[in-house]
Amino acid sequence: MLEELKMQVYEANMELPRRGLITYTWGNVSGIDRSKGLLVIKPSGIEYDELRPEDMVVMDLEGNRVEGRYKPSSDTLTHIELYKAFESVGGIVHTHSPWATSWAQACRGIPCYGTTHADYYYGEIPCARSLTAEEIQEGYEKNTGLVILETFANRLPGHVPGVLCSNHGPFTWGKDAGEAVHNAVVLEEVAKMAYQTEQLKPGLQQAPQALQDKHFERKHGANAYYGQK
Ligand SMILES: O=C(CO)[C@@H](O)[C@@H](O)COP(=O)(O)O
After folding, report:
1. Residue 73 Cα, ligand 1 centroid: separation in angstroms?
2. Ligand 1 atom 4: residue of nearest CA
3. Which pLDDT score, from 0 to 100, does residue 192 have?
4. Domain assignment of residue 225, yes or no
5. How much is the pLDDT for 229?
6. Active-site residue among 24, 60, 225, 226?
7. Which pLDDT score, from 0 to 100, does residue 32 have?
8. What is the ipTM of this complex?
């Protein structure tokens, strides 16, 4: 079942160590088939160099395993909350990539200091609030998804394709698993640049709004013209 999606999700997972976003098994990628209401996700805790396409786990949106010999990623219920709320999203990534995770551990959103950021993320990349002790003890992974959704109450997931979870790490998404990985790579680069920018100039303001608007619009707006559009 879902052989093509399994291959896509497998390849997207394997891109994480190639891009230096993963140490050991610290991350996961999923993709969804909306017509079937099923998602495919990496199994939990299996070393990347042992992973095979057929090891990907098929889940329904209620959190039941539909196919696969392994247990799914421990973050599956977070992915499910995001898929349920963000209808345009087709792929999700979670990593502990060090620069993005450093901002998450500082419980800080990443300000938009330049056009690299604005080309992909419109405005600050937010940091979701910390979970309460009760939210951690009961339903932790689902609640991680719910606080991300709280953070997006007044944001569009298509404008800001990622978030930081306080004291934890980043989640990113996209139209499919490959685009979600692309956005994870960009987030890591932008997190590094923002840190270095603040070292060079503490107290800096975000990039001018007109510049942020121009760079986001020319790639993603109704009249986008970046590349071969
Ligand atoms: O946050 C954590 C562990 O603290 C997980 O995201 C990470 O180790 C990946 O777990 P899975 O192998 O996907 O279950």
Report:
1. 7
2. 26
3. 98
4. no
5. 76
6. 226
7. 98
8. 0.96
Could you tell me the two tokens for 205? 């303001």
Check residue 111 and report its DSSP letter. -
Distance CA 194, CA 69 (A): 42
Look up 226 and say whether it is catalytic. yes
pTM exceeds 0.95: yes
Q: Note down the domain range covering 41.
A: 3-220
User: Minimal CA–CA distance to 59: which of 70, 46, 45, 48?
Assistant: 70
Alpha-helical (H) ranges within the chain are 3-18, 76-85, 98-105, 115-118, 133-137, 140-151, 177-200, 209-220
CA separation for the pair 168, 153 (Å, rounded): 21
Q: What is the CATH number of the domain that holds 109?
A: 3.40.225.10
Does any domain span residue 226?
no
Q: pLDDT at position 216, please?
A: 95
Q: Which residue ranges of the chain lie beneath pLDDT 50?
A: none
* pLDDT, position 120: 97
